[in-house]
What does this fold into?
Amino acid sequence: MYVFTVKHFHTIVQHCLDYLPFEAGGFLGGRGNVILGIFPLNNFAGFEGREKFEISSYMTSSVFEFFKKKKIQVMGFYHSHPERNLPIPSKQDVLASQIIPAIRLNMIVSINDILDVNCALFETIGGKPIKQTIKVVQDSKIDQYLI
Ligand SMILES: [Zn+2]
It folds into this structure.
């Protein structure tokens, strides 16, 4: 189980909706099993961005600095799958999490249409994506979940 605040969870879904028809993405940071920070990114794939997400290396270094300042670790990545029903990692999603160990968590927001949004979280364990439960709590309650 991984815990998100309402604020972070809402920001992620809203970012994905705002970016339609293109893929949106960003980093997840935190400690233990608690997400304590998110860093939405711009998609650098341009018009190919309907089917893929590209990160600039400049942005990646800002993300690591941002999380370091907040004293949290990079835990993973979220991204959207526009015009798809079920949030299932693609072959590329699995490959990316195998290549980059910092991206242990992969959150997928599938958007069939604006009223049909499905979210799922996968943790890469032994090179395979294992589905995890997402728990969303009020911002003020997040401290209870920190060990
Ligand atoms: Zn994907």
